[in-house]
């Protein structure tokens, strides 16, 4: 049965609606140019998966409070700031099919917009004394930055092994979903042990989510990011890492040379994709994704039964079964 996001949201539909209003209010500013850019960002927000993880985690762990709304807003503000800065760093002109902030208003303004969003998230928490929520979210931002820098460092030498790959995606992607689940639990008044448990649950989901994202690069689904974009950007992901580990010295050298010097040639990118598929890299990565997925589902099973838990379970399934 296909998972429907509207049904998954059902237990927190009213809260998600209220959150939209509160989040827009948190981004208001008297500076006309900045307010115009904030409106542009809000109108182009995606499926709101992160706030959904926060609210369902809070509901599962004890109850949704005003702190839950602030925690979800903090995550969205700080994460949006990181995306705006990422687009500057990557010189990217598009975000979710729309022009990025830096494409429309140039890099200087985009950097300042990111700084504004970051400061709004910090102020929101300080105004209400949400110091534990602030600790959880800022730790995730630190991890995400370190993950990006670690990936950049390793991309220069193309010497990423499985352990380093897992460390990169744990920091870069999984830390954010982990913080969503931890913020939800903490905002509901849960004890530290429960917050830690929910953080671990989110980390497992994030690991599976990123491996799924990396598989899109090999055309495993008709929809998704452009084929071979990771190869063009010299990103060493699990399917390629595994395939190279099984290759002869000469084959490894040949493929590495293509990634390093010829990733802009579509024919060469297809050659790498074919090499990875023939070496079993796709199946290996799918098995790794399934392991993390199973771990997350096993943890969910230990939580008290409720509509929130049921939706949280479906949301995890949705993130793994998605086509884009």
Pick out its properties:
2 strands, Farnesyl Diphosphate Synthase, 324 residues, mainly alpha
Brief overview, please?
The chain is mainly alpha-helical and 324 residues long. It has 15 helices and two strands. It has helices spanning 5-9, 13-26, 32-43, 49-61, 66-89, 101-128, 131-157, 162-187, 192-216, 229-232, 238-245, 249-261, 266-278, 281-301, 307-321; strands at residues 94-95, 98-99.
Could you explain the architecture of this structure?
Helix 2 (13-26) crosses helix 5 (66-89) and helix 14 (281-301) runs antiparallel to helix 15 (307-321). The chain is globular. The protein is mainly α. It has helices at 5-9, 13-26, 32-43, 49-61, 66-89, 101-128, 131-157, 162-187, 192-216, 229-232, 238-245, 249-261, 266-278, 281-301, 307-321; strands spanning 94-95, 98-99. The longest helix is centred in the middle third of the chain and has 28 residues, at 101-128. The chain is built from 15 helices and 2 strands. The chain has a two-stranded antiparallel ribbon. The mean pLDDT is 87. Strand 1 (94-95) and strand 2 (98-99) form a beta hairpin. It has 2 domains: 15-43 and 50-202, Farnesyl Diphosphate Synthase, CATH 1.10.600; 217-297, no CATH class.
